[in-house]
Amino acid sequence: MYYCYGIIRANSMEVELLKLGPEQEPPCLIVEGDLGMLCAKIEGDLMTTATRESMSRYTEVLCQVIKHTTVVPLRFGTLFDQEEEIHRVLKKEKKRYLRFLTNLDNKIEVELKVWWKKESFQETMLKNKRLGRRKKAIERGEGQGYDVVEFGKAIMEVADYERKEVEKIFIATLRPLADEWLVKDPMDEFQAFDGVFLVERQKEEDFDQAVGTLYEKYTATMIFKYTGPWAPHHFVEEK
């Protein structure tokens, strides 16, 4: 079987430049016209099972590839049984893949995740006067069981509103420096923002500085996690 990482332009890089671990099957490039499928020939489910090790290998290869050339990343676990299948897909979808590559040229993906610190989350939520009054009533023992449940639902409603306000501020700062962007759903109640951005390489430093400006402004109340560069997974619709 062939485990596939992504699609690049033929002759756009030397696969031998990729430095992999001693136990990792070295990638090969199957070329069809102007396109090449970067893949590894494997046996069994070594790379297809979603373990921390296999995901790390997949990410490692793509992170190295984007240092050398533009890639259309394929979803983790993409397999082909035979080399002929790869040739057939590359030939059939040539125009679409070349369009992807043109759109992604000299661009990287970065992600910014932000969480409220626990204390600041509580302070932010309780700035809402209605929530403040409910909390005091519950603390005085005036509320019934359902009041506590309703209070929890009200907190989530206020949190959603505050997330939208944070999103407006962050996007207003970062959008001018990105070609494309999307905001993901929060992973937990404390997450205030999770944005993914497609950034031109020549604007990467400016984008980093813009994130730094937001960090300096909100670091007292929020926790930042800024990662990348990554292959542009969120900006291709390719399985």
Quick gist of this model?
Helix content is 42%, strand content 24%.
Can you describe this structure?
The two termini are 17 Å apart. Helix 5 runs antiparallel to helix 6. The model has no long low-confidence stretch (mean pLDDT 85). The strands form 2 sheets. Strands 1, 2, 3, 4 and 5 form a 5-stranded antiparallel beta sheet that branches. The chain has helices at 52-65, 83-92, 94-104, 118-126, 129-139, 145-174, 204-218; strands at residues 2-9, 28-32, 35-41, 72-73, 79-80, 107-116, 180-183, 191-200, 222-230. The longest helix has 30 residues, at 145-174. It is built from 7 helices and 9 strands. Strand 7 (180-183) and strand 8 (191-200) form a beta hairpin. The radius of gyration is 23 Å and the shape is elongated. The protein is α+β, with helices and mostly antiparallel strands and 239 residues long.
Which structural traits does this protein have?
alpha+beta, 239 residues, 24% strand, 4-stranded antiparallel sheet, 5-stranded antiparallel sheet, 42% helix
Tell me the radius of gyration.
23 Å
Mean pLDDT: 85
Gap between N and C termini, in Å? 17 Å
Beta-strand percentage? 15-25%
Low-confidence stretches: none
Number of strands: 9
- Number of continuous helical runs: 7
Structural class: alpha+beta
Shape: elongated
Note the run of SSEs as H and E. EEEHEEHHEHHHEEHE
Question: Quick one: biggest sheet?
Answer: 5 strands, antiparallel
